[in-house]
Write a structure and sequence with these properties.
The complex is a heterodimer.
Chain A lengths: L12 H23 L5 H4 L2 E14 L2 E4 L4 E4 L3 E18 L2 E8 L24 E10 L8 E7 L5 H4 L12 H10 L7 E12 L4 E11 L17 E11 L19 E12 L7 E13 L2 E18 L2 E18 L1 E2 L5 E12 L4 H9 L6 E14 L3 E13 L14 E2 L3 E4 L2 E10 L1
Antiparallel strand pairs in A: 1-4, 1-21, 2-3, 2-20, 4-5, 5-6, 6-7, 7-8, 8-9, 9-10, 10-11, 11-12, 12-13, 13-14, 14-16, 15-16, 16-17, 17-18, 18-21, 19-20
Chain B lengths: L3 H16 L5 H8 L5 H23 L18 H18 L3 H9 L5 H18 L6
Classes of the chains: A mainly beta, B mainly alpha.
Chain lengths: ~450, ~140
């Protein structure tokens, strides 16, 4: 199983270079346009988005499976410096109520294949740039925050970890549970799909309660990804989520990108529930996901937890007989942190994050999972570390250590049943533990 | 002659409705069963382009065919009204496979049976007028 198949990317380095050139030209044009004395209002309202996340990763205990000896062979510890994420793009409110966002990412540059950090490398002569967000959001007039429509390419609202900004989580990396969930229900690992979403925020400031709801339909066009295939039929991926808050709301305005840490300013509880599904298509009879999540921010204390149930039914042919088989897996994560408020509005945040994936372990279940191109076995990770927020939400450094364990179930050694046992550039592997030192800047 | 431009826009609307298959009963059923993105894509595109169109109409001060300024007052966000009205509208939409725009397009295409639906829609609008004062707004 390939967990980071780069099918959605612009695969050719030449095309990537052309993309980079186009984007650069766009920004140059923009800068030139803004510099003009009679600049249209909509150009003045354009906000650039820039962010970078650089890691130094020291990996230990990693072992690669040797097919000749049928054994895992330990590799030497290694240090690797990675540009883990780069974000650049623009946001603008073209006119009152209508916003647009274009966001690109240049990720995993310099990552060594045998580094313990998750994901595949983005190297070669010209690393590729990924489009991440390209959408239009329309806030219906007269509705306040209650009804907003979004259309384009963006993250469906499902699962707190998935909709929390990658620069906003307190762990070094987003929990692996979101990757399993995204692969299952959306297809692509980056979790973006083309579609439309209706959502809104309803707040009662007197009772200190609120609800953010979202419902979206998305087009499953990623024929080559994981396990989603349009095929002859292309039923929509429908995604619904409602988050109920007590106490301080997470936000006073409707937002699609959520946060985890409010830097001692929130005293509130949020409980989210999500449902997503897709009808029969080439790869399966139906595909479903259920999500439950919680977020507690009580001044310096922050706790977030999430559980996802992933289900799929497919008609599979075994020895010439078609048979309907069911798949079920559970995944989730939990994160706990505390903010120490320091001088000059800096925060020191110790944080612990645990993530787990539990799929079928028996031979029949794992055979079904393999036929459905889904993960099986167990994958655990535990991450502990500390963040120093030099400028909250804008600049931080962090030092974290991540332990990883897995169980391949009946598939045994040399299988690639889940992300712990596979690395796209390597094949069968047992992922190592890693110490990460990171710098994150976002403006 | 004065009405010619409106006639032309009406024809264009009918063509778009027909070629996009938004007048198809099967497309509507497919949408309500989440079997295809087709209709959601059409509606989503229409909302975004509609918002831009309304903005431009307001900005350019376009007037109505009677020469009066356009009055486009935002509707109030009333949950009860929207839920009840939306549910009734959705039931009719699912049963007939058409909302008000496509009704006239279908009639123009010679689907005479749609006259029953048009008559029902007009009757429904009339009944709304009768009971308006007693309904939640």
């Amino acid at each position: 199983m390939e967990y980071s198949k780069p099918g959605y990317r612009i695969d050719l380095p030449v095309a990537a270079g052309r993309n980079l050139l186009s984007v650069s030209c766009f920004f140059l044009f923009l800068a030139g346009a803004v510099a003009q004395s009679k600049t249209p209002d909509w150009i003045k309202r354009i906000d650039p988005v820039l962010g970078i996340q650089v890691w130094s990763v020291y990996t230990v205990n990693e072992a690669v499976f040797n097919r000749d000896s049928s054994r895992y062979e330990r590799i030497r510890p290694r240090l690797n410096t990675i540009v883990r994420r780069t974000r650049f793009g623009v946001r603008s409110e073209l006119f009152e109520g209508l916003k647009v966002e274009l966001l690109f990412g240049l990720d995993q540059v310099g990552k060594e294949a045998l580094s313990g950090a998750p994901g595949s490398a983005n190297n070669g002569s010209s690393p590729v740039i990924n489009p991440l967000n390209a959408f239009v959001a329309y806030s219906l007039p007269g509705c306040g925050q209650a009804l907003n429509l979004t259309a384009g390419y963006f993250t469906p609202q499902f699962g707190r970890e998935s909709v929390t900004g990658s620069f906003r989580v307190s762990s070094m990396e987003k929990a692996a549970s979101q990757t399993y969930m995204r692969r299952h229900i959306f297809g692509p690992g980056p979790g973006r799909l083309g579609g439309i979403n209706a959502g809104g925020l309803l707040l009662d400031t007197a009772l200190h309660i609120g609800c953010q709801y979202d419902f979206g339909v998305f087009n499953p066009v990623f024929d080559t990804y994981g396990s989603n295939s349009s095929g002859d039929y292309s039923p929509v991926v429908w995604v619904g989520r409602a988050v109920f808050s007590i106490g301080d709301p997470e936000s006073k305005t409707y937002k699609q990108v959520q946060e985890y840490n409010f830097f001692n300013r929130r005293k509130g509880l949020s409980i989210g529930i999500g449902l997503a599904g897709q009808g029969a298509e080439a790869g399966f009879l139906n595909n479903q996901a259920f999500n439950l999540d919680v977020l507690i921010n009580w001044k310096a204390f922050n706790l977030a937890g999430e559980w996802d149930l992933l289900k799929r039914r497919s008609s599979l042919t075994d020895n010439g007989h078609a048979e309907v088989r069911a798949y079920r897996a559970d995944t989730g994560c939990c994160r706990l942190s505390w903010n120490f408020h320091m001088r000059h509005n800096r925060f020191l945040e110790p944080v612990v994050t645990a993530a787990v994936f539990k799929g079928p372990m028996d031979p029949a279940g794992q055979k079904t999972a393999e036929a459905m191109k889904l993960a099986s076995g167990k994958d655990y990770s535990l991450e502990a570390g500390v963040n120093l927020h030099l400028m909250p939400r804008k600049l931080k450094v962090n030092l974290h250590y991540t332990w990883r364990r897995g169980d391949a179930g009946s598939a045994g050694s040399g299988s690639t049943v889940n992300a712990y046992f596979s690395q796209p550039e390597v094949g069968a592997i047992t992922r190592g533990n890693w110490l990460g030192l990171g710098l994150l800047a976002m403006y | 002659m004065k009405l010619l431009k409106f006639f032309a826009v009406g024809i264009l609307f009918g063509l778009v409705m027909t070629k996009s298959e938004a007048i198809s009963w099967f497309r509507i059923q497919e949408m309500f069963h989440f079997d295809s993105f087709h209709m959601f894509g059409i509606i989503g595109s229409a909302v975004v382009f509609g918002a831009i169109g309304i903005y431009l109409l307001k900005k350019k001060g376009v007037r109505s065919m009677m020469g009066k300024p356009l009055q486009l007052d935002p509707k109030k966000m009333e949950i009860k009204r929207l839920l009840l009205g939306g549910t009734v509208f959705g039931l009719g939409w699912a049963m007939t496979g058409a909302c008000p725009g496509p009704l006239y397009v279908l009639l123009g295409q010679g689907a005479g049976v749609i006259l029953v639906v048009i008559a029902s829609a007009i009757f429904g609008a009339y009944m709304y007028g009768v009971f308006k004062a007693r309904l939640p707004h």
